[in-house]
Inverse folding.
């Protein structure tokens, strides 16, 4: 893992744009020096694979054509009049994930999260985020093996989530409330890491994207100070995250080298005093994996306060005479009573309710049974009655309360919806396997293989089904495929699933 | 909810690395939000959040530790210089915004219910709670 990251960082350094100091132009505006590639066909061809990787993360994309059309409209406004070849076809997709983050895949698909949309104050801020991300694609910042690395992160974190989920099923009520709670927190942590982990950009590339993103937004008539606001939000998140990550990492490190019994409660206690208790090895493994990934990935990123300093200097030099303007409200801003605005507002409200219910499921001190029930009920109705995110939360809520019928119904609603996630498929497969319905499990797996572009994330589960159904030959036959990805964690998980690990 | 924020913050650490903490003794005489100092070589002063530039101060002449009297939706900050209220672009100054901005109570209510409820995290926690349930 460390070697992979080290190589990635080294490669990114070599790729840094030479004409730009600190990623910014040494003089003039980035947009005036923009020379897009003549052809983006090669990266555009990778879109199905990129979408498959993203779709297998978190709870997939938010199936809202309205929200997508709105975000794409902002993106088109940014790029209007920019000479880009027809082969460059950027688009925006909304990921059902609560983190404040955005990313771009090599083909120009910009992924923004629900958590980001919720925390933006105006369209101008969204414009800066989209401008920044699309700049990465215009500049072709992604490494050639982006997909391979992205799959690596998906596999490693998918394995961690699955490991904890399996342990939860295995321990069940016999594990005791502390164990169950520990596993539950671990799975949420692992899932969060799976949501956001991915190949990172170098500092110079981030700066270059800040500069061009800023140019694009101001050129489109947005207020440049919105970029300052976005950087402030990033900085705030960084400050909180840094303290929590340091505490978690120190505690995990002390455990590794200190000997004796491990108390995940101590780790979490350092992060949040509310947690305590001794938990199982599986939770420890999942948490350690999470912390390792977190600390390694944090190494190369460019802190927001530094980025803001550079951006301020750029705005001062290049946009001094551009007067401040009033920001454009988001469609879901207070007071917007348009039909589209109300529809997007309603959808976001349901995601917010589901997030609150998820928080209660992970930690019952964050709500009451009544409030959680109310939020699950609310988020399970239209317009999100078949959304993977809201239904996964409903599944967890009902499952935790022993209501197996309702929990499976929630999964089925999502599976029949427009954007069922891998987690939905995975849990449904678990339910079929628990009933020894291997034919049903394999049928779901076949659907998933098509839907998620034959993602390697699916392989261990696929092998698990085959092995459990007695098709050991079929299970063994998939092992070379696992090995072909050259991801040790994947091969180990596959061997374990086949019963030979 | 705080714990929830921490979980998300932990995940955020993967993407965003450490930020330097604000020094605790920056402008201790100003309570609340403050413009600490100039960030850029010169600071432009405006007569409104979307108004006209009325004056420019060299960074050496820009006063330190000014109390922020208002913050506009576009983030412009109102301070008083030489007895005159003026607006400064935030990118031109170092500032400290201790208190949260007013909660953004998006109209997340459903089905014609005019009750405003917030989204899940810090921006909206001061918003009114929905009827018959919790936020």
């Amino acid at each position: 893992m460390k070697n992979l990251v080290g190589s990635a960082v080294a490669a990114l350094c070599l790729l840094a744009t030479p004409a730009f100091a600190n990623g910014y132009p040494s003089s003039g505006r980035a947009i005036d020096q923009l020379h897009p590639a003549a052809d983006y066909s090669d990266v555009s061809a990778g879109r199905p694979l990129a979408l498959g990787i993203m779709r297998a993360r978190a709870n997939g994309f938010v199936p809202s054509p309205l929200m997508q059309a709105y975000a794409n409209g902002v993106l088109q406004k940014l790029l209007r009049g920019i000479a880009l070849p027809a082969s460059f076809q950027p688009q925006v997709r909304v990921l059902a994930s609560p983190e404040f983050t955005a990313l771009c895949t090599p083909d120009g698909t910009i992924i923004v999260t629900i958590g980001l949309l919720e925390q933006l104050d105006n369209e101008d801020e969204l414009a800066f985020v989209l401008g920044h991300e699309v700049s990465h694609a215009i500049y072709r910042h992604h490494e050639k093996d982006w997909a391979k690395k992205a799959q690596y992160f998906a596999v490693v974190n998918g394995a961690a989530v699955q490991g904890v989920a399996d342990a939860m099923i295995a321990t069940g009520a016999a594990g005791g409330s502390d164990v169950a709670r520990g596993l539950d927190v671990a799975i949420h942590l692992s899932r969060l890491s799976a949501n956001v982990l991915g190949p990172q950009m170098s500092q110079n590339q981030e700066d270059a994207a800040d500069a061009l993103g800023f140019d694009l937004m101001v050129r489109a008539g947005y207020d440049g100070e919105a970029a300052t606001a976005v950087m402030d939000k990033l900085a705030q998140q960084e400050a909180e995250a840094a303290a929590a990550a340091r505490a978690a990492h120190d505690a995990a490190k002390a455990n590794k080298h200190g000997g004796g019994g491990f108390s995940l409660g101590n780790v979490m206690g350092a992060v949040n005093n509310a947690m305590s208790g001794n938990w199982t090895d599986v939770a420890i493994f999942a948490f350690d994996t999470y912390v390792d990934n977190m600390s390694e990935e944090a190494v190369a990123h460019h802190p927001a306060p530094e980025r803001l300093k550079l951006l301020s200097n750029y705005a001062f030099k290049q946009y001094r005479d551009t007067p401040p303007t009033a920001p454009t409200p988001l469609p879901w801003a207070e007071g917007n009573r348009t039909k589209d605005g109300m529809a997007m507002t309603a959808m976001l409200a349901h995601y917010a309710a589901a997030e609150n219910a998820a928080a209660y499921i992970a930690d019952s001190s964050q709500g009451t049974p009544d409030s959680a029930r109310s939020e699950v009920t609310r988020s399970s109705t239209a317009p999100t009655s078949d959304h993977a995110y809201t239904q996964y939360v409903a599944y967890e809520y009902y499952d935790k309360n022993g209501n197996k019928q309702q929990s499976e119904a929630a999964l089925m609603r999502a599976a029949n919806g427009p954007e069922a996630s891998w987690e939905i498929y995975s849990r449904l497969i678990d339910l079929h396997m628990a009933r020894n319905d291997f034919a049903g499990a394999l049928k779901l797996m076949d659907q998933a293989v098509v839907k998620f572009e034959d993602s390697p994330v699916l392989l261990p589960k696929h092998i698990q089904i085959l092995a459990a159904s007695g098709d050991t030959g079929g299970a063994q036959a998939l092992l070379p495929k696992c090995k072909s990805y050259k991801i040790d964690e994947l091969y180990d998980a596959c061997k374990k699933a086949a019963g030979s690990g | 909810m705080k714990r929830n924020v921490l979980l998300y913050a932990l995940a955020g650490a993967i993407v965003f690395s450490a930020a330097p903490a604000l020094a605790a003794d920056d402008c201790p005489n100003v309570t609340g939000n403050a413009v600490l100092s100039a960030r850029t070589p010169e600071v432009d002063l405006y007569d409104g959040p979307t108004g006209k530039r009325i004056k420019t101060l060299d960074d050496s002449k820009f006063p330190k530790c000014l109390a922020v009297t208002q913050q506009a939706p576009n983030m412009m900050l109102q301070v008083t210089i030489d007895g005159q209220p003026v607006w400064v672009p935030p990118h031109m100054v170092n500032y400290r915004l201790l208190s949260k901005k007013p909660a953004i109570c998006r109209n997340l209510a459903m089905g014609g219910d005019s009750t405003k409820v917030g989204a899940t995290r810090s921006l909206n926690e001061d918003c009114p709670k929905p009827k018959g349930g919790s936020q």
User: Anything to note?
Assistant: The CA atoms of residues 31 and 450 of chain A lie 40 Å apart. Strands of chain A lie at 20-21, 24-25, 91-95, 102-104, 109-113. Chain A is about 65% helix and 5% strand. Residues 2-151+191-318 of chain A form one domain.
